[in-house]
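Before any further analysis, backbone shapes were mapped to integers, which produced the following:

***
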Amino acid sequence: MSICWIVLTDGRKNYISESLPTWIKEYDSQIKDKFIVDDSGDKEYADWLTEFFPTFNIVSIKNSRQGYAKAVQNVFRVFRESGCEFALHLEDDFILHKPVNLQDIVSVLEQNPNVAQMSIMRQPWYHNEVEHGGVVEALEINKAKFTNKNTLGFDWVEHRSFYTCNPNVIPRWTTDTPWPDGNWSESRFGREIFAKKKTVGIWGNRKDWPHTEHIGRERNGTDY
């Protein structure tokens, strides 16, 4: 099945120059259609992206920053227009430490047509996650339900607790639900997905987490 790769950035050169090469090392030759959606509104930054990431198509949204919700709407638009059936979606501040096999993820999503997303786990980041030893562990304290699954011999965890724009793979049908405008768009989108009786997954066995490291302590974007 065809898979494209879409990276969202908003001008943080210091982060993307550190993070994206760790992914390129693993996946650049595997994926033909690659895009960087740039919400910086900065032509100089867009030119720099073109120079340093020559295998990616640079998609500049407008000549001024549009904000997070509009940026993700453009990620969805680029995905739909690509004609691909699945997309690897990243933000510009995640380092890949443990590569995953994307075709394996796609195979599991194909076998589970109710799953809107397979995320690739990051390290504990927020205070409650650090306190409890992980993203899932922090949510389980509040009775969130996570179910261990195995499909085609591959471990993953199914849940309905959150949709995330942390590194993830999504099927094209996920974009049939419009990404909302305004603040808290990520959590609001998740609620819409779950209201449609869909679920999401986290790739791998818990003992294998995390696969990625979030490094973005500073934000340029707005409208989160």
Summary: The mean pLDDT is 95. The two ends are 32 Å apart (CA to CA). The longest strand covers residues 3-9.
